[in-house]
Amino acid sequence: MNTVTVIGAGLAGSECAWQLAERGICVDLREMKPEKRTPAHVTDNFAELCCSNSLRSDQLSNAVGLLKEEMRRLGSLILACADATRVEAGGALAVDRHGFAALVTERLRAHPNVTVTPGEVTEIPPGDVVVASGPLTSDALSDALRVLLGDASALSFYDASAPLVSAASVDMNHAWLGSRYDCGTADYINCPMTEAEYDAFREALAAAQEADVHGFEDKKVFEGCMPVEVMARRGRDTLAYGPLKPRGLRDPRTGREPFAVVQLRRDNADGSVYNLVGFQTHLKFPEQKRVFSMIPALRDAEFLRYGVMHRNTFLDSPRLLDRYYRLKRDPRVSFAGQMTGVEGYVESAASGLLVGIETARRLSGLPPVDFPRETAVGALACYISNPSVTVFQPMNINFGIMPPLERRVRGKRNKNEAISRRSLELIDAIRAKL
Questions:
Q1: pLDDT digits over 1-23, tens only?
Q2: Nearest to 229 by CA among 287, 301, 175, 273
Q3: Residue 408 buriedness (CB in 10 A; 0-12 / 13-18 / 19+)
Q4: Whether the Cβ atoms of residue 63 and residue 376 lie closer than 8 Å to each other
Q5: Whole-prediction pTM
């Protein structure tokens, strides 16, 4: 019986291992925890969420909402576990991070076709391999990958996680519960700021001291996950039109939109912990306490975890990988997850899903599925393997990388929902043949 080695039990590796195992392929799942951890990991569970607990929008008018629905219909382990451990977050899918990771771990360890081998992988093993070692790939495995790739194709950029606060410590005299445009249930704590409060906060944030850069980091900043202090330095309006935008958030005490609003999102199932939405940061811990306490509702907040920043590594995928995430120069080796240049939890898991399905079909003597660009799963695969992309940067799923509709549809939301319906019809047709 065929055996595939999957290196890494993060979101992508876990999803890939599940798809292979469900199709009768034996999987040797290699995970270096608990023997060794990266600077961002704190538990021994698979699929640990290191940054936010949100998998973002669950609406079909949003591309990531479409991607999640495609994955549900294709039997995704990650989406099944996320749905089972979700916490209320308006129109978003957020999870109890510890319950989610524990459930993924439990299901994989219980699968008869999955063998878990602990310990760090320091070289690429023989046979069919899926490298899903994540954005914090160990130095030893990175060295092995450089030899395999034949050049210095691995790059690095920053990712960052936001602080967590105790819900009980938030001053609700200066905040209210609600969702943007009153969509769904009132799942966010909204912390308003006046213009004067915002200006003082932004100036303090822009001047605050950052933490020292460690050996696994460098000075680059990835635009898709920009630290909040970097946004503050880019001008007075950057935050007000970014994570602190008040649009659609009407303060029930005044009946008006505040000048700026900091949103807090539930981080666990019982609602005792909230994270500061969009507040990824590399500030020193005392500076985080000092500056973030300038937000009126957080003046006496208890910070349960401060924000941290860590390295991410990704490949020059359009030059190296095909649409199945296989290495062109050595097709027995595939890659999955953020290191391929898909950005985000859901996108990482989606790449693992595609790799698992396509690898299982190849090993079973079946033709590839070739997910088309009209599907979100296929659009991501085509984007990371498009040789015409000369300056490659990690990409979240978006409707812009999918073909437009052949007919005109009025309104952005209506158009996006029409694109989603087209995609899901294709996914249902593909699923019927799997």
A1: 689 999 999 999 999 999 999 99
A2: 287
A3: exposed
A4: yes
A5: 0.76
